[in-house]
Amino acid sequence: MTDRLPRPHRADATIAAAGLFGGLFLWGVGLYTRGPDDPISLIQPGWAVLVPLAVTAGCELLRRTRPRTALLIGTVALTADLFTRGSLATIVMFTDLVYAAVLYGSPGAARRIPWITGLVTVIATVWPVAAWQQPEGLLIGVFTGLVTFTPAATGWIVRNHRDTAVAERLRAEQTALLAEIDRTQAVTAERARMARELHDMVANHLSAIAIHSTAALSIDDPRTSKDALAVIRENSVEGLAEMRRLIGILRDDSGDREPAAAPTLDGLEALVAGARTNGLDVTLEAVHEDRLPAPVELAAYRIVQESLTNALKHASPGRVTVAIARPDGSLSVRVSSPYGDRDGPRAPGSGAGLVGMRERVALLRGTFEAGPEDSPAGRVWTVCAALPLTRGEDA
């Protein structure tokens, strides 16, 4: 398959046509760069300038698609033009070919051409002066620099500005992409955090309501129904208060209100007392002396809260044990509840509680385990979490 030349750019075709018609006009009115007596003009007929002119105009068609080829052929055409009476249009188009070769050529060519044209300019300046011993020889160097080095240097400057602009645009696009990724991750993390908070705050109350309402409906005993309704009312009020607090936090974006205090381990006694009210037989074994980091206390509180909620929904009759210890460098949370075969949970569950506990521990770079195990009291379901006190992120 033959390698077909690419279609010239529209602007290149316009430049080629303008150069060609400009050269034809200069030839038609008899304007040349050298007179008939110039010793270098070996080819005297005026029409001879049209051949280099046409070749250089054809090279202009390749200035953007094949810049190196265009410059090489244009150099040959300019050399041939030196032996005719010369056309200014050919010289002007050659300077454009040098400029285009630096601007549109390969990075290697863009680096080499200014050095080559600079060397040629120096030689064209030094050699005539040394050979003729006349200061007029400097004019040859000046002319050579204008035709070769000046367009090459201009192309190098323009290319550097263009490459810098492209790099800055790419950097801006990458920065915008990274910012969008960060924003998406932040939104996802915030949604997960709010989901954990909503589940942990409300699930306990709703589970108690579901269990006691079932008891009130299934047991035909006025005393039992009254006690169940009392528990239902208490959990409804507390759950409604938690919901209002959470909604208030979500709606308040003024920044003037003090943030609601996060639960701490000091509230475990009240949490266990509420679980007892809901019908669980709970014991609390807590070793808690100094104030711990707020994220650790919040995570430990929520893990105990969710474990008690799961025990209320799923555990067999028996004692639930909550143990809080503080080994070196970490806080240990362990909640055990009786585990046995049941027809089904006393309240529906989605499994989001275990997921939320695992996420809280992962944010603090701790360890989490949950599952059945054997104990002296029989088969139990145990939730174990170890929370480092010096590492991790805000839960």
Can you lay out the helices and strands and say which pair or pack?
Blueprint: H1 10-28, H2 50-60, H3 67-82, H4 88-104, H5 107-132, H6 138-218, H7 222-251, H8 268-277, E1 281-286, H9 294-314, E2 319-325, E3 330-338, H10 352-363, E4 367-375, E5 378-388
Helix pairs in contact: 1-2, 1-4, 2-3, 2-4, 3-4, 4-5, 4-6, 5-6, 6-7, 6-9, 6-10, 8-9, 9-10
**What's the helix-strand series?**
HHHHHHHHEHEEHEE
In the sheet with the most strands, the strands line up as: 1-2-3-5-4
Helix content: 55-70%
| Total helical segments | 10
In short:
The chain has 395 residues and is of the alpha+beta class.
Structure characterization notes:
62% of the residues lie in helices and 11% in strands. It is of the alpha+beta class and 395 residues long. The protein folds into two domains: 10-175, no CATH class; 264-395, Histidine kinase-like ATPase, C-terminal domain (Heat Shock Protein 90, 2-Layer Sandwich). Strands 1-2-3-5-4 form a five-stranded mixed β-sheet, covered by helices on one side. A hairpin with a 4-residue loop joins strand 2 (319-325) and strand 3. It is rod-shaped, with a radius of gyration of 44 Å.
